[in-house]
Amino acid sequence: MKLNLNTNKIFTNLIAVFIVTLAGFILCSITTILIKGMPNFGSSLLSREIQFAIKLSFFTSVISTLMCIIFSIPVAYGMVRLNFPGKRLVNTILEIPMALPPIVAGVALLILFGNTAFGNFLSDAGLKFVFTVQGIIMAQFFVNVPYMLRIIKATVEDIDPRLEFVARTLGCNRMQSFFKVTLPLAKNGLLAGIVITWARAIGEFGAALMLAGATRLKTETLPVSLFLNMSTGDLELAMAAASILIIISLLSLFAFQYFGGTRPEQSRANII
Amino acid sequence: MLRLKNIYKRLGDFNLKDINMEINEGEYFVILGPTGTGKTVVLEVIAGMYRPDRGEVCFKDENLHFFYPEQREIGFVYQDYALFPHLTVEKNIVFGLKIKSLPEATIQKKLYAMVEMLGIKHLLHRYPATLSGGEQQRTALARALITSPRILLLDEPLSALDPRSKQVFQEELKNIHQTLKTTTLHVTHDFNEAKFLADRLCVMHEGKVVLVGTPEEIFHQPKNNFVAEFVGLKNIAQ
């Protein structure tokens, strides 16, 4: 009997050690940057380069998030509510960018928008994506749209289709039932999706680097600024950029959890 | 008259087989049968959630096959009421009238008459999640009836209520039907409910209609083994 009790205690303590180690490891690595970045945080924020990076990051991430919303809402709704042949295949295709390493996604975009007929056509029409700010937006959109899709799909799946059907019996056509019932009910999921997509867009590096390059004061977003300043050994600016990214990520994480993302479950099992 | 002619519908493992039914105008018709027998699917086929694989749904000799749900003018009340959780009781009830863009004065007049009849005037500003089962039930019924549907479909409307509310609401349903005379199809697995409410009823079993008749004919002279057994079992249970 005693042996059993001890085994249980050891088991629980072992789990506690794992939890503390992992949480501690994450916390330490983050605080180290914040501690290094904070003393010169104010002066770095005033530097032209960091200000440019902040502005560019906000601009590109807001536009790419808007593009993600515009595409994800109808696509997610269609993928949940409509049945069509090849749906599984289409679903896999839509999720490919999530499985690709961002740098590969960047190369794919670079080649597509580079010297192909399609790329030349767009370029002639005034839409240049290679080594431009538009390229950053396109890269962020391409890499992040599957995440937004997943969140909105999960949200729509949770909405009882009978609610839409009842709305139909009350006189709504499909579009009205979508806008009056499904979309308002998807609000929280949508907000969570926006927050997480935007935060990921702010931090997007690999794909944007390939497509838009890393040119100081031209395509210099916060992560690019961090990369450039680390390479040139300008640690103050690098840490400032890293600190801003950390703060944005933490705030986004809290916002995401607030809007109904993942919350730690209160376990039902009361293990003794 | 609402007529279902040789309706077949396959949904996964489930099959509706050759459903024939005729419901007269103004009638209170009950579909009685054990759980999982396809009663709700019959209602959903009538309302247009699914098109049948074969067969026809006709209303006043008009084939509804190519009509969208919004063109059928059918009121639907689900077992769990399916109220819009993001709208107040008032907005739930007037939902159908707003879609039709009726003038605000007409909407308010109809709303007032409806909530007065169902006794839910005091609930107008509440959200569905804060209502009791009976209150949700009344709200769902008001939402369906306010658009003056040609047919009212009730899917086990009393099954989620406690026995006392059930008794009260059963009588209310009968009164409402006597007042409005809306052709009503009511699905249930409860004998007493069927007996009390039905002008006529049909018994369904494993996706088929096994018997149609008045409550008198069904419960006192069942012409079918399954029905006799179904009724008999219930009697023993009582």
Description:
The complex is a heterodimer of chains A (272) and B (238). With 272 residues, chain A is mainly alpha-helical. Chain A has helices at residues 2-37, 41-46, 48-81, 87-99, 102-113, 117-124, 133-158, 161-169, 174-185, 187-203, 206-212, 222-231, 235-258. The two termini of chain A are 14 Å apart. Chain B has helices at 39-47, 89-99, 104-118, 133-145, 163-180, 191-197, 215-220, 225-237; strands at residues 2-11, 14-23, 28-32, 54-59, 62-63, 74-77, 151-155, 183-188, 200-205, 208-213. The radius of gyration of chain B is 18 Å and the shape is globular. A 6-stranded mixed β-sheet of chain B has the order 6-7-8-3-9-10, sandwiched between helices. Chain B has a 4-stranded antiparallel β-sheet with strand order 2-1-4-5, with helices on one face. In chain B, strand 1 (2-11) and strand 2 form a beta hairpin. In chain B, helix 2 (89-99) runs parallel beside helix 4 and helix 3 (104-118) crosses helix 4 (133-145). In chain B, 39% of the residues lie in helices and 25% in strands.
